[in-house]
Design brief:
single chain; about 350 residues; Porin; Translation Initiation Factor IF3; 2 domains; 5-stranded mixed sheet; elongated
C-alpha cells in the first residue's frame, strides 16, 4: 500500500551486528521502538521495548512463527490480547481492544464498525526481504473513536505487524528447505505396510493392503490432472495451495481427452469445499481456456470461449460440431484476472 509522505512514518531498520534486533526509526533517525526475536523454535517469542529506557513494552508468543493464534501481552499496565488468524482465502488477523474489533488485512489495519464501512488506522508496505518496510499510524482516524489507551493500541498494532515479518521469514526458510512445495506443509508419507504371512494360504489380491494412491503431480501452483489420481487428493492439494497467503491462483491442466471431464470435476469440487469451509464473502474466480485453435484443427495460442450449446445450422453461416476439447486449463483465482476473460467474437460486417 502506498504511504502518505505527509504522515508520521516509522521505518523498520535491522540493527547491524545483531540479526535478532529491528529498530523502528522515524525520518529524523530517532528510534521509537526496538523489536527483539527471542526464539522461533521450538516456540515463538518476540518482544518490543523502549530503546532508551530498555523498558519492556510487550511480548508476542505462539507455538511457532506460522501459528494461527498468538498472544500479545502488554506491560505497565498489564493487558493480554488474543491475536488470531480469521481468514480463509484472504489474509486476515483479528484482535479486540477496549471493546473495539480490529483486523489486519494484508497491508493495513482496520477498525471494524459493522454495518458501517471499516476505518483504516494503520498502513504499511508489504513484507519484503529485499527492502526496508515502513508503517504509519493514522492518528486522525483513531481520534474519531472513544479509545482511552491509544499508546497501548499502537503497540498492539505494531506487535501484530512485526509478527507477520517473522512469519514471512519462517515461510521463506521452509521454502528453501523444500522448494518442491513452497509455502505448503509436506503431507506425511504413507507408512510402508508389509504383509504378514499366516498359517493359511494368502490370497494375494484379497489379503494384501491396497497400494497407496499416486502423488498429485504439480509444478508450483500448476496441477496436472491424471487418470490414476483420486479427485479427493486433488481437492486437498488445491485447498492447501489456496490457503497459502503467497499464492493468488492455481492452474488445473488436463492434457488429454480423458482427463478433461475430470479437470472440471476437480475445479467444481474445490470450489464447493472452499465454500463450505469459509465464512467469508470472497469467492474464487474461475477462468476456463483451451489450447485449441478457433477452427478446431490443432493446438495454438489462441484462447476462446467454449461453446456448450448444441450444434445449430444457419442459412448464412455453417457451424461444425467440434466435439469436446482435447485439453483444458482452468484458473481458480482469489483475485480477478481480466486478461483471462473470454472475448466476444467480432460481429460480421
Amino acid at each position: 500500500m502506498a504511504l502518505d509522505a505527509n504522515l508520521f512514518t516509522l521505518v523498520l531498520t535491522p540493527v547491524k551486528g545483531d540479526p535478532s534486533l529491528v529498530d523502528l526509526v522515524d525520518p529524523n533517525g530517532e528510534v521509537h521502538y526496538r523489536k527483539r526475536l527471542i526464539s522461533a523454535q521450538p516456540t515463538y517469542e518476540m518482544s518490543i521495548f523502549d530503546p532508551l529506557t530498555q523498558a519492556l513494552l510487550c511480548t508476542v508468543k505462539g507455538t511457532n512463527p506460522m501459528a494461527k493464534q498468538k498472544t500479545i501481552e502488554l506491560f505497565n499496565p498489564n493487558v493480554t490480547v488474543s491475536f488470531q488468524y480469521t481468514g480463509t482465502l484472504t489474509f486476515k488477523w483479528s484482535f479486540e481492544w477496549e471493546n473495539h474489533e480490529f483486523e489486519w488485512k494484508k497491508e493495513a489495519c482496520f477498525l471494524i464498525r459493522k454495518p458501517d464501512p471499516p476505518v483504516i488506522v494503520c498502513s504499511c508496505d508489504a513484507p519484503s526481504m529485499s527492502k526496508r518496510s515502513a508503517l504509519q499510524i493514522l492518528d486522525y482516524n483513531l481520534q474519531r473513536f472513544d479509545i482511552e489507551d491509544r499508546k497501548g493500541l499502537e503497540i498492539c498494532i505494531i506487535a501484530g505487524l512485526l509478527s507477520f515479518y517473522d512469519q514471512q521469514e519462517e515461510s521463506n526458510r521452509q521454502k528453501q528447505q523444500d522448494p518442491r512445495k513452497p509455502g505448503v506443509p509436506l503431507r506425511p508419507s504413507p507408512p510402508k505396510l508389509t504383509p504378514q504371512a499366516s498359517e493359511e494360504f494368502l490370497d494375494v489380491k484379497k489379503d494384501l493392503p491396497p497400494a497407496p494412491s499416486a502423488p498429485v503431480p504439480r509444478d508450483g501452483n500448476e496441477i496436472f490432472i491424471l487418470d490414476d489420481v483420486p479427485i479427493d487428493d486433488y481437492v486437498q492439494t488445491c485447498a492447501e495451495l489456496l490457503r497459502d497467503e503467497s499464492i493468488l491462483f492455481i492452474i488445473l491442466r488436463a492434457q488429454s481427452l480423458s482427463t478433461v471431464p475430470k479437470c472440471v470435476q476437480v475445479a467444481e469440487a474445490t470450489k464447493r469445499y472452499i465454500y463450505r469451509t469459509t465464512d467469508e464473502d470472497d469467492e474464487l474466480h474461475q477462468y476456463v481456456t483451451t489450447d485449441e485453435k478457433p477452427d478446431g484443427r490443432g493446438k495454438g495460442k489462441a484462447k476462446h470461449r467454449i461453446n456448450l450449446n448444441e450444434p445449430m445450422r444457419d442459412t448464412k453461416h455453417e457451424y461444425q460440431y467440434l466435439g469436446p476439447p482435447q485439453s483444458l486449463t482452468i484458473h481458480l483465482s482469489k483475485i480477478p484476472m481480466p486478461e483471462l476473460q473470454p472475448k466476444a467474437a467480432p460481429k460480421p460486417s
